[in-house]
Design brief:
- By secondary structure, this protein is α/β, with parallel strands linked by helices.
- The chain is built from 11 helices and 11 strands.
- The strands form 2 sheets. The protein has a 7-stranded mixed β-sheet with strand order 3-2-1-4-5-10-11, with helices on both faces.
- α1 runs parallel beside α9, α5 crosses α6 and α7 packs across α8.
- It is elongated and about 70 Å long.
- The N and C termini lie far apart (57 Å).
- The protein binds adenosine-5'-triphosphate.
- Adenosine-5'-triphosphate binds next to α4.
Length: 319
């Protein structure tokens, strides 16, 4: 291939810029031109393109968000939208695409591949909820952000002998909740993968109180929700003054950690390596810390087991 495109799609994640940088630099190293597509598939449909030379991606490895902007694009879900995107590629000589995003973005990449533009997907989402890979770009940064914020809450929670119910991101998966909960010593962690009810929370707070504990952190995954109601119930039924805090989008921002910069660089490089061999319709990721790739259709069917053993450890230790 002589010319490839790169776009970011779905929710932004810290480390996306590091991946863009790697794609651009690896592409140029192989003698390819690289074009940035703005605002996800919208930019492909509307022809919003920006040529990216090796110096155009200077000074972005440390920046959160995405210099290419990201968006959702309903039109791309339909045949007409995909045809327009293909026409943009053909008119601009783009022979392959790197798509950085989540499962939805990979479905789009599979459609575009089927229409003759080979695509390679790079998993970029703070939720770590993509089955074919053990790791997604942005996850480590989001965890560290959530941990720092809960640590700050803990100071005030401890000083006032209170309970903090903290809702963290993770719409479809509880990985952020589990890891934040463990790293912050949460008394309870609520995720949709593990049955742990409001009654369980109350009982656990009551029994932990008898061991001399005065303040409590309860971490709730976004997918479970109901933090405000849970805080009220805890206060009513245990007598511990409780506050709910929803961390929200702050978890998506910030400078990527070492892990995210390194993973993004590896994945970006690998994606270009595949495209340079005319291999498309793939998603790249990590299994046992090794780079792997799967056909997009196969990747989308895979199931990721939840970390039940880790959850058990958290339950035994946070008493
Ligand atoms: P996140 O994990 O952050 O939600 P995502 O990539 O899963 O990321 P989606 O909103 O599901 O986010 O998808 C992003 C875009 O991918 C959509 O706006 C749409 O343009 C495209 N897309 C999603 N599903 C399909 C599909 N079935 N066919 C074609 N394109 C799709």
């Amino acid at each position: 291939m002589k010319k490839i495109g790169v776009l970011t799609s779905g929710g932004d994640a810290p480390g996306m810029n590091a991946a863009i940088r790697a794609v651009v630099r690896a592409g140029h190293k192989r003698g390819m031109e690289v074009v940035g597509v703005l605002r996800g598939y919208n930019g492909l449909i509307g022809g919003e393109l920006r040529p990216l030379g090796v110096r155009d991606v200077s000074d972005i490895i440390q920046r959160g968000g995405t210099i290419l902007y990201t968006a959702r694009c309903d039109e791309f879900r339909y045949e007409e939208g995909i045809r327009k995107a293909k026409a943009t590629c053909e008119a601009n000589g783009i022979e392959g695409m790197v798509v950085i995003g989540g499962d939805g973005s990979f479905r789009g990449a599979a459609d575009l591949s089927a229409h003759g533009i080979p695509c390679v997907g790079i998993p970029g989402t703070i939720d770590n909820d993509i089955s074919m890979t053990e790791y997604t770009i942005g996850y480590d940064t989001a965890l560290n952000t959530a941990m720092e914020l809960v640590d700050k809450l803990r100071d005030t929670t401890q000083s006032h002998d209170r309970c903090s119910v903290v809702e963290v991101m993770g719409h479809r998966a509880g990985y952020i909740a589990l890891h934040t909960g463990i790293s912050c010593g949460a008394t309870c962690i609520l995720t949709s993968e593990i049955p742990f009810t409001g009654d369980d929370v109350i009982n656990r707070i009551k029994s932990t109180k008898t061991t001399g504990k005065h303040h409590f952190i309860i971490v709730v995954s976004e997918g479970v929700g109901g933090s405000e109601e849970l805080a009220k119930r805890i206060e009513r039924e245990t007598g511990v003054v409780s506050r709910a805090t929803i961390l929200g989008h702050v978890q998506r921002g910030g400078s990527p950690t070492v892990k995210d910069r390194v993973a993004a660089t590896q994945l970006g490089y690998y994606a270009v390596d595949l495209l340079s061999q005319d291999i498309g319709n793939k998603v790249v990721g990590f299994q046992h810390d090794e780079l792997v790739n799967f056909d997009i259709q196969e990747a989308l069917k895979m199931k990721k087991p939840f970390e039940n053993d880790l959850y058990k450890i958290a339950l035994e230790v946070s008493i």
